[in-house]
Amino acid sequence: MVSLGASRYPSRFDPARLDEVDPAIRGNIERRLDVLGPGYLLIYNDPVAFVRGRGAHLFDADGRDYLDAYNNVPVVGHCHPHVVEAVSRQLAELNTNTRYAQAGLVDYAERLVARFPDELSRVTFACSGSEANDLALRVARHHTGGEGIIVNRWAYHGITREVASISPSLGEGSPLGANVREIDPPDPGLVPAGLTLAEHMLDEVRRAIADLRRHGFDMAALVLDLSYMSDGIFPEPTDYLQPMIDEVHAAGGVFIADEVQAGFARLGEDMWGFRRQGVVPDIVTMGKPMGNGIPLSAAVFRPEVARDFGERVRYFNTFGGSSVPIAAGAAVLDVFEAERVPERSERVGRILRDGLRELLADAPHVAEVRGAGLLAGVEIVADRETREPDRARTTRVIDALRERRILISAAGSEVSALKIRPPLAFDEADAARFLEGIEQVARLHLGLE
Amino acid sequence: MVSLGASRYPSRFDPARLDEVDPAIRGNIERRLDVLGPGYLLIYNDPVAFVRGRGAHLFDADGRDYLDAYNNVPVVGHCHPHVVEAVSRQLAELNTNTRYAQAGLVDYAERLVARFPDELSRVTFACSGSEANDLALRVARHHTGGEGIIVNRWAYHGITREVASISPSLGEGSPLGANVREIDPPDPGLVPAGLTLAEHMLDEVRRAIADLRRHGFDMAALVLDLSYMSDGIFPEPTDYLQPMIDEVHAAGGVFIADEVQAGFARLGEDMWGFRRQGVVPDIVTMGKPMGNGIPLSAAVFRPEVARDFGERVRYFNTFGGSSVPIAAGAAVLDVFEAERVPERSERVGRILRDGLRELLADAPHVAEVRGAGLLAGVEIVADRETREPDRARTTRVIDALRERRILISAAGSEVSALKIRPPLAFDEADAARFLEGIEQVARLHLGLE
User: Fold this and answer.
1) Measured torsion, CA atoms of residues A146, A303, A266, A376, in degrees rounded to the nearest 10
2) With an 8 Å Cβ cutoff, is B89 touching chain A?
3) Interface of A with B in 129-188 (CB under 8 A)
4) B120: which chain A residues are within 8 Å (Cβ-Cβ)?
5) Residue A29, domain member (yes or no)
6) Is there a single domain that holds both residue A152 and residue A247?
7) Are B305 and B172 part of one and the same domain?
8) Is A97 in the same domain as A141?
9) CA of A447 vs chain B CAs: smallest distance (Å)
10) Which one, of A6, A5, A101, lies nearest residue B40 by Cα?
């Protein structure tokens, strides 16, 4: 019954166990199962409900404090007062669309675009990362005249039909397009003997282009999430990408950097994942953290890539770029500047990853700690020799942390990499609490002595 | 250079005329042209900027009051204090996603679903009408195994690649899918001699199903906006739909009512357009007015239609159903109840349409006043005998109203129907001001003596 896609959600609630749920929320879950569509899931074996959020902390109805080491949407922290104030003020004044000449829209567009290389000078707003990626693909197809899309083998780019068709991680129930080819992510474990990772990545993209051509598809785009979040978190290394892009350009395609995950300083001091790779994409998309929870996303274009689509097709997104989401986006940039969020991501992220490496150095079920900035992946294995992924153990770790009121999840081809991706409000004290929690759990489940 | 699609926007700003714009906003527009994507348009020959909104009124920086007879998103009125308060409170408390057991999510889902026939009992939330329609199509394809989609000839259903491919009104620059067939809207002017409108509509859907089959496409869905907004506004008559749906069902397809325009009492006392037609759809989608400007949309399903997709594919929408949009949706329903919004739509709509009919009865350039609830279409023609659409005159009327600080737009196959679609906060005084304004304009441009 359960497809590969559905099964890729680590640690989720099984409705058959409703009787075991905390009575305080059982009734709500029972009603939920009756009224929401069947596609909804609850995270964790033991589901949780919150009533309040602050910084990297969530609180339940009994006032218990959960450390949020998972949610990337509230990037500057849950309910950040500056964002709350700016959005509330805008809500009370005006909320109209982009067909009127709003001052705030242009101010924010300029501030956002200023954070990109000069080549990337035009922005279009939407509501979700899915909409931004969907627009990027429409523009890429229109501009190139091609249809071929190359993505990573366990990539996730969103939920519209078009972006679902380039998202293998959704599983067998969700068909890939006939025009879509998959390549390996930059996982050293996938590189054949005798090749460097960079050579293998280039081979992969060449093979995909050739196979697309053989099936009658000219290139439209290579689309990469440079955090490789759903592939298992591989922000390192950073030295292989330009030759792949050159190959795509030579075949007539464009390069789309999907920064929904990597963007907004998730990977440290650089605002965007592509900056760390020393490349300039043709289109960049962004979403989740952009409005700190108010739906806001965008695609930033090289003008020559977007021009004909813009003039011949047009694009009007009712909510995208309207006054309230724009106020949210501007407030997020304010906080990024005032609190030096990228520097904090770099600094606290280093403490977190160094701490994890030190703590888990001798844990027999930990093969590797990966990451950059405030993103860490911990590869859980049956044993270090074979490096066989241990998915059941990964789930146990997630649930054991949740019992200690620490929230994480998992990712990767075998869903065996702990996904540690806190709000960038996560500070030194939060990192210390996290490391304390994972030490306890590592003694129980990861063989730490 | 300008495509059919782009040209379907009535009265828009021509950047070549930048020098003529009000100096107060000229600089902003100049910067806007440099930083926003080329797909953006400004409405009106003489663009306008607002700084404040209340009820059905927008105010510019000089405090001038514009009567909003166009925007459907702020359904209960611009910056309605109850919605502002509820959303601001939620923003300050918590904003998380549907993977946690939020009480507010289930409460709202139940309130929303209670407004549907018993058969439609499952709801899935998203951000925009485009996302909701895109999901509805994914579910319809999955459930039926077919691909064929039937839509109206000038329909608009959104901007993802999938829904753009079923939106002929986007124009020649935006390709329709090979799996898409167009049928006439219920425009009496399109009915061949000797047939009733109902007979013609049934013929249309039969012809489309046969043509799809001939090209190898089994039926997935008939998708209709029951206000026929972009087709030119034809909420009447209401007696032809069930046989069309029966035909679609017999061919293996489902019926999707796109209520992004017609829903939330736009057409009067009935909350949904399909209610007026006495039918029960298989899927209903909704968007724009749902959160009064906070991005929120939904698809409501018959459970048997959504079940397999839900279980095998799943659907997680990051922002859809998160705490703040849900608070906005709940506050809108509060206002609908407290202010009896559907009754107001019916009552004020009747005053508006009766007033228009009376006023324009002898205007030689007006062929017809159509509509239901707070939606009115006024067909502008070169003369009443030929009924030849007069698009240039339509644009002059829109701009003349804008000069009098009354906001409307136009729709229809020839973009020659005035589109009068105010927030449902529009009251008797607003209707009186509107009628006064249009009387002046009708004397100038519609031949009224």
Assistant:
1) 20
2) no
3) 129-131, 134-135, 137-138, 141, 159-162, 164, 170-174
4) none
5) no
6) yes
7) yes
8) yes
9) 30
10) A101
**Cβ proximity of B141 and A141 under 8 Å:** no
DSSP annotation of A291 reads G
Query: How many CB atoms neighbour CB B14 within 10 A?
Result: 9
Is residue B349 within 8 Å of B374, Cβ to Cβ?
A: yes
Strands of the A406-407 sheet, one edge to the other: A52-54, A57-59, A65-68, A406-407
CATH of the domain at B194: 3.40.640.10
Q: Quote helix, strand, coil % in chain A, to nearest 5.
A: 40, 15, 40
Q: Is residue A160 part of a domain?
A: yes
Q: Residue A397: which CATH number?
A: 3.90.1150.10
Decide if A39 and B314 are in contact by the 8 Å CB cutoff: yes
- Asked if B58 and B156 sit in the same domain, the reply is no
Q: Touching check for A50 and chain B: CB below 8 Å?
A: yes
B301 and B386 part of one domain: no
A352 and A205 together in one domain? no
Residue type, A418: L
User: Does residue A241 lie within any of the structural domains?
Assistant: yes
Low-confidence ranges of chain A (pLDDT < 50): 1-4
Select from B280, B309, B338 the last residue of a domain. B338
Which residues have a Cβ under 8 Å from the Cβ of B390 and sit 6 or more positions away? B365, B380, B381, B382, B416
Name which of B127, B297, B332 to mutate to probe chain A: the one with the most chain A Cβ atoms within 10 A of its Cβ.
B127
pLDDT in tens, B215-252: 999 999 999 999 999 999 999 999 999 999 999 999 99
Query: Domain boundary at B274, B309, B338, which?
Result: B338
Looking at the structure, tell me whether residues A274 and A361 fall in a common domain. no
Beta-carbon contacts of residue B289 (< 8 Å; ≥ 6 apart): B72, B73, B74, B75, B263, B264, B266, B332, B424
Domain of residue A361: give its range: 50-76+341-445
Q: pTM, whole model, 2 decimals? A: 0.97
Of A281, A253, A232, nearest in space to A409 by CA: A232
Strand-strand pairing, A409-411 and A417-420: antiparallel
Chain B residues with CB-CB distance to A98 below 8 A: 36, 40
Cα dist from B185 to A292, A330, B9, B60, B241, whole Å: 42, 43, 20, 38, 11
Tokens of A156: 């996730």
Nearest of A45, A165, A6, A156 to residue B310 by alpha carbon: A6
Q: What is the pLDDT of residues A219-251, one digit of tens each?
A: 999 999 999 999 999 999 999 999 999 999 999
Interface A:B, Cβ pairs < 8 A: 348
What domain count does chain B have? Answer: 2
Q: What is the spatial distance between Cα B372 and Cα B267, in angstroms, rounded to a whole number?
A: 5
Q: Are residues A95 and A157 in the same domain?
A: yes
Q: Which residue of B has its CA nearest to A31?
A: B106
Candidates A57, A106, A230: best to mutate against B (most CBs of B within 10 A) is A106
DSSP letter string, B413-433: TTS-EEEE---TT--HHHHHH
List per-block mean pLDDT (blocks of 10 residues) for chain B, which spans 449 residues: 55 94 95 94 96 98 97 98 98 97 96 98 98 98 98 98 97 96 97 98 98 98 98 97 98 98 98 98 98 98 96 94 98 98 98 98 97 98 95 97 98 96 98 98 97
Q: From residue B259, how far is each of A354, B240, B273, B285, B296 by CA, in Å?
A: 53, 18, 7, 5, 13
**Contacts A123 to B, Cβ<8 Å:** 35-37
Distance CA B256, CA B254 (A): 6
ipTM: 0.97
